[in-house]
Write a structure and sequence with these properties.
Order of helices and strands of chain A: HHEHEHHHEHEHHHHEHEHHEHHEH
Helix content of chain A: 40-55%
Oligomer: heterodimer
CATH class of the largest domain in chain B: Alpha Beta
Mean pLDDT of chain A: 95
Number of strands of chain A: 8
Distance between the termini of chain A: 26 Å
Shape of chain A: globular
Strand content of chain B: 15-25%
Shape of chain B: globular
CATH topology of the largest domain in chain B: Nucleotidyltransferase, domain 5
CATH architecture of the largest domain in chain A: 3-Layer(aba) Sandwich
CATH architecture of the largest domain in chain B: 2-Layer Sandwich
Largest sheet of chain B: 5 strands, mixed
Number of helices of chain B: 8
Order of helices and strands of chain B: EEEHEEHEEEHHHHEHEH
Strand order of the largest sheet of chain A: 2-1-3-4
CATH class of the largest domain in chain A: Alpha Beta
Largest sheet of chain A: 4 strands, parallel
Strand content of chain A: 5-15%
Structural class of chain B: alpha/beta
């Protein structure tokens, strides 16, 4: 690709997002000096009450992604294994635990937490992982338990989770020794709702042919909807990003210069191989137009009532993609295949993420039958490169693309 | 017009020539250390065999793990498409392929036009590949081409329970120490590998008739073990090992 073309297809908002993320981490690092508290929270955890309480949320999983992308995962995973943790444990958990001890990683470790907020809507590993960290930092831990909704959100689940939201608020009031500001919470809720709507609209722009961005860009731009959801910063940023995408569509700028094939990705990214994978697909004139991962931060928006945020939050946080039944997950995948007009479905069987990888075989079967498009499963890990075998993955992707090309010719 | 296919596998390099839509000749050599050198050597030896010069070759397609190293090929394609094409070329009735090579085993489902409908490959583990059998043959001091005859003389197959190649090798060594019959151990090795390969065939819901390709298809004991496990007969052609190279040559003719 020529430098001129590379410059043309570059997404301009990327620089601004890097600046916002740098400021965010600097604020968190200096929180103590500014009399602010820091809470570590799981990626699917309800962050809005923290924002309403002026507590800085920090996401060890976002940090894990940074570790993976900066190719520091292997070393930190080995350090955790040397501490006695199993190599079968999630690589986000392993790198976070070892990073706390050795202060390693791309930013020299995360700012020390004043409290931990753990929601098990994404997995069960987080319970033990956060318990380990609560002991290590000697800080209070709040656990929000969201039962899996295999088929429906029952009234029992509704009452159970809603009651915990109140306990969560009491927990925050006790630790901060401040009263919870319900008016501010309502404002934060509206901003969270708005930013999720905007994020969904950004993701929707890739339905256009050719796609103005790829899932590899979404993996990057996801950081704000995770970390700064509920703030004006996130709303403003996604408004501008949406505008940029719409302008790209008008100007005919696509992320893959000669897009011929459109693919859907499942599971977390392979963080340490983003560039290689993106090049690989681009060489086949294929664009990963969408994925089940980045849409998880706006997928439950239909359950959110922006005017009664606290009340609807219980349902929205319980019914996220990883906490529903396999049939419902497959339905979402089928909807996405249709909406984005995907020619193939690529599943990452992620050694680390058990709840995401469990059920993939069934989803694969359902998609093959109902969507009649080629489906490929590759084995890897989101952060630990020892679970990635390049020549094996390469042959599978090349063969998968040959089949897609054969079918379309 | 003459077209060439070159298949650089993890243990052997294969080359094939197609002329007027018919198979002209094939050649096989060990891959060795350098895939490009192996590609040049197998290609030149094949041309010499039929006294054809390089300039007579209209197009070349490379395949196999070393496919990207063959810088004189017009195009590189994966083994999956090449095996599908090669099989359909040799026998258009075939709907399923079981290919067991050096470090990969795969199962491929073809439609009636010879296009790949679906495929499954072994995961990162080498159990159920040619390498697994090779490691065991070394431990038993039996040449690869003798394995088939040995296993057909077994009175019962020894049970190898470990899936891991390294652990299975220790198991075999302790069987040798326990004075189990070599024939029985070899039959056990074939059954263990066949069980792994059969999973791939079941995964794609393989349809008969099924052809077995790849170097391991030359091992009668392994074919018998697979047939027993699958419950149907496998077709093994004379050019099972060269099938990928033949497919590559056919694809070269379509460039």
């Amino acid at each position: 690709m020529s430098d001129k073309l590379a410059e043309k297809i570059k997404i301009k908002s990327a620089k601004r997002m890097r600046d916002i993320m740098t400021t965010y981490y600097l604020d968190a690092m200096t929180a103590g000096q500014n009399n602010k508290q820091v809470a570590w929270i799981t990626s699917g955890g309800p962050v809005e009450p923290l924002v309403a309480m002026d507590i800085i949320p920090i996401y060890p999983e976002n940090h894990g992604a940074m570790i993976g992308a900066s190719k520091m995962g292997e070393d930190l995973c080995i350090k955790a294994e040397n501490m006695g943790y199993s190599s079968d444990l999630c690589s986000y958990a392993r790198t976070d635990i070892s990073c706390s001890v050795v202060k390693g990683g791309p930013i020299g470790g995360l700012p020390k937490p004043d409290m931990l907020i753990c929601c098990n809507n994404i997995c069960g590993t987080v319970l033990k992982w956060y318990e380990v960290q609560a002991r290590f930092y000697n800080v209070p831990l709040f656990i929000l338990d969201t039962p899996i909704c295999h088929t429906r959100y029952s009234s029992e689940i509704a009452r159970y989770v809603r009651a915990q939201i109140d306990e969560y608020i009491v927990f925050l009031e006790t630790i901060t020794k401040r009263k919870f500001d319900y008016d501010k919470m309502a404002r934060v809720g509206k901003l969270a709702y708005e930013s999720q709507l905007l994020w969904q609209k950004v993701l929707n722009t890739t339905a256009h042919k050719p796609s103005p961005m790829s899932a590899f860009d979404a993996f990057f731009f996801l950081a704000l909807i995770v970390t700064l959801r509920g703030t004006q910063i996130a709303v403003d940023f996604y408004k501008d990003l949406l505008e940029e995408m719409e302008q790209r569509i008008k100007d005919g700028i696509s992320m893959v210069p000669d897009e011929k094939y459109r693919l859907l990705w499942d599971n977390l990214p392979v963080w340490y191989r983003l560039k290689w994978l993106s090049q690989k697909f681009s060489d086949h004139n294929a664009c990963l137009v969408a994925d089940t991962y980045t849409s998880a931060w706006c997928g439950a928006i239909k359950y959110t009532d922006e005017n009664h945020f606290l009340d609807s939050m219980a349902e929205a946080y319980t019914r996220i993609y990883l906490n529903i039944g396999v049939d419902q997950m497959a339905d979402q995948v089928l909807d996405m295949i249709k909406f984005y007009d995907a020619d193939g479905f690529l599943m990452h069987s992620n050694r680390s993420c058990k709840p995401y990888s469990f059920g993939q075989m069934d989803i694969m079967k359902i998609v093959r039958e109902k969507a009649d498009i080629p489906v490929l499963m590759i084995e890897a890990d989101m952060v630990d490169p020892r679970s990635f075998s390049q020549s094996q993955v390469e042959t599978r992707i090349d063969a998968f693309m040959e089949i897609i090309k054969q079918r379309s010719s | 017009m003459i077209y060439a296919g070159i298949d650089i596998g993890s243990s052997t390099a294969k080359a094939a020539l197609i002329k007027d839509n018919r198979l002209l000749a094939t050649h096989v050599i060990p891959t060795g250390y350098n895939p490009l050198n192996a590609g040049i050597a197998v290609f030149e030896a094949l041309l010499e065999k039929v006294t054809i010069s390089k300039t007579d070759i209209a197009a070349i397609v490379s395949t196999g793990y070393g496919r990207a190293s063959i810088n004189f090929a017009d195009k590189a394609m994966t083994e999956i498409i090449c095996h599908g094409t090669g099989t359909h070329f040799m026998n258009p009735d075939i709907r399923g392929i079981i290919d067991v090579g050096g470090q990969d085993s795969k199962s491929i489902l073809l439609d009636k036009n010879g296009q790949v409908e679906n495929f499954a490959m072994n995961d990162k583990c080498a159990a159920g590949t040619g390498r697994f059998i090779e490691v065991m043959a070394n431990a038993l001091e039996v040449r690869l081409d003798q394995l088939g005859d040995f296993s057909l003389r077994a009175d019962k197959a020894s049970k190898i329970s470990s899936i891991c190649t390294v652990f299975a090798e220790s198991e075999v060594i302790s069987m040798i120490a326990g004075l189990q019959k070599r024939e029985n151990i070899i039959a056990g090795i074939h059954e263990s590998a066949a069980a792994r390969v059969a999973i791939l065939a079941f995964k794609v819901k393989i349809k008969e008739p099924v052809m077995m390709t790849g170097g391991v298809a030359k091992n009668k004991g392994m074919v018998a073990a697979l047939e027993k496990r699958l419950g149907f007969k496998l077709i093994v052609g004379d050019f099972a090992q060269e099938n990928g190279a033949i497919g590559a040559a056919v694809l070269a003719s379509r460039l």
